[in-house]
Automatic annotation (TrEMBL):
<comment type="subunit">
    <text>Monomer.</text>
</comment>
<dbReference type="Pfam" id="PF05822">
    <property type="entry name" value="UMPH-1"/>
</dbReference>
<dbReference type="InterPro" id="IPR006434">
    <property type="entry name" value="Pyrimidine_nucleotidase_eu"/>
</dbReference>
<comment type="function">
    <text>Specifically hydrolyzes 7-methylguanosine monophosphate (m(7)GMP) to 7-methylguanosine and inorganic phosphate. The specific activity for m(7)GMP may protect cells against undesired salvage of m(7)GMP and its incorporation into nucleic acids. Also has weak activity for CMP. UMP and purine nucleotides are poor substrates.</text>
</comment>
<keyword id="KW-0378">Hydrolase</keyword>
<keyword id="KW-0460">Magnesium</keyword>
<keyword id="KW-0479">Metal-binding</keyword>
<keyword id="KW-0963">Cytoplasm</keyword>
<keyword id="KW-0546">Nucleotide metabolism</keyword>
<dbReference type="GO" id="GO:0008253">
    <property type="term" value="F:5'-nucleotidase activity"/>
</dbReference>
<dbReference type="GO" id="GO:0000166">
    <property type="term" value="F:nucleotide binding"/>
</dbReference>
<comment type="similarity">
    <text>Belongs to the pyrimidine 5'-nucleotidase family.</text>
</comment>
<dbReference type="GO" id="GO:0005737">
    <property type="term" value="C:cytoplasm"/>
</dbReference>
<dbReference type="GO" id="GO:0000287">
    <property type="term" value="F:magnesium ion binding"/>
</dbReference>
<protein>
    <recommendedName>
        <fullName>5'-nucleotidase</fullName>
        <ecNumber>3.1.3.5</ecNumber>
    </recommendedName>
</protein>
<keyword id="KW-0547">Nucleotide-binding</keyword>
<dbReference type="InterPro" id="IPR036412">
    <property type="entry name" value="HAD-like_sf"/>
</dbReference>
Length: 322
């Protein structure tokens, strides 16, 4: 209404313009209290550069467990791909207890803010090796995996399907880079109807014998703190990701930051870190490492908003062409 009074129009407009300039971002999701940024102007500049280049220049590289899946749901921890295998359908009682014990021993080391990635590395190798050896001993059957996933409480973050769908629609490649178990990861996204053709996966894949019994894990082991090696060898080999110099990277661990190291032509990289656990202890290191830090946020609202912003020029182009 005030806009209809001529003498008040100009001052109000000026104030609004100054306010807009001060808050600048066109993304309301980034103003939430759960969103932290070390350098807001860098985030905005990167997003504008990515928007200008459009969807055709973009690729998304994301971690899986506790990044695309929730950390907790209805007050309970959501299982990781490894923990989905910790099911009596697949392994005996003794082994389920052993796997839980290993988790309780090594997960606190994985997220310990007082240890460097180099200090954590040998423990991570130990954890993954022990668990994989145990799974192999249990002679897991390939044809039981889908049922184990259906029985589990695995759940993608709210808005995750929209994220996958938008990427597929815009033909933006999505590389899921996970230290989890690739066969289970694939089954989770298949059962959620988001395993689109633009999805590529680097992970630990099971090797089954001729009757479908687990006998080994394929290739070099990937754990939380050696993703750089995997990125350089396997990531660089993914042809679809060449020619996409802008990277939106999502992770929940400092080890995830090296997932884009295989992108030799990278021009702009925007990193988003989900800080799920040990929030106060890890806040500073996350803020020093990720461009955007999301505190105890179980949704994909922020990545979805960033993605919409980056591809918005393409969307308006499509509408103009119609
Ligand atoms: P990510 O790279 O997709 O996040 O998968 C790795 C996560 O899996 C990491 O946070 C630790 C977790 N993990 C388990 O939950 N149970 C296990 O037995 C192992 C070896 C790893
Ligand atoms: Mg993770």
């Amino acid at each position: 209404m005030v806009f209809h009074i001529p003498w008040i129009y100009t001052p109000v407009r000026t104030i609004l313009a100054i306010w807009h300039q001060l808050t600048k971002t066109e993304i309301p999701e980034l103003t939430r209290v759960s969103v932290m940024m070390r350098e807001r102007s860098r985030v905005e500049d990167t997003m504008y550069a990515m928007q200008k280049a459009g969807a055709g220049s973009l690729q998304v590289i994301s971690d899986f467990d506790m990044t695309l899946t929730k950390f907790a749901h209805k007050g309970k921890r959501v299982p990781t791909t490894h923990n989905i295998l910790n099911n009596r359908l697949l392994i005996d009682d003794d082994s389920t207890v052993k796997m839980k014990k290993l988790f309780n021993t090594y997960y606190p080391i994985e997220i310990d803010a007082s240890l460097s990635p180099e200090e954590k590395l040998p423990y991570m190798v130990e954890w993954w090796t022990k668990v994989h050896d145990l799974l192999i001993q249990q002679r897991i059957r390939k044809d039981e995996l889908a049922r184990a996933v259906r029985d589990s409480n695995a759940v993608l973050r709210e808005g995750c399907s929209a994220f996958f769908d938008c990427l597929a629609e815009q033909r933006v490649p999505l590389l899921i880079f996970s230290a989890g178990v690739g066969d289970i990861l694939e089954e989770v996204i298949r059962q959620n109807h988001v395993f689109h053709p633009n999805v590529h996966i680097i992970s630990n894949y099971m090797d089954f014998d001729h009757i479908g019994v687990l006998q080994a894990f394929k290739g070099q082991l990937i754990h939380s703190y050696n993703k750089r090696a995997g990125a350089l060898s396997q990531g660089a080999a993914l042809r679809e990701l060449h020619g996409q110099p802008n990277v939106l990277l999502l992770g929940d661990s400092l080890g995830d930051l090296s997932m884009a190291d295989g992108v030799s032509t990278a021009q702009n990289i925007l990193t988003v870190g989900f800080l799920n656990d040990q929030v106060e202890e890890r806040k500073e290191s996350f803020l020093n490492s990720f461009d955007i830090v999301l505190l105890r946020d179980e949704t994909m609202d922020v990545p979805n908003a960033i993605l919409r912003f980056i591809v918005s020029s393409e969307i308006s182009k499509v509408h103009r062409e119609k």
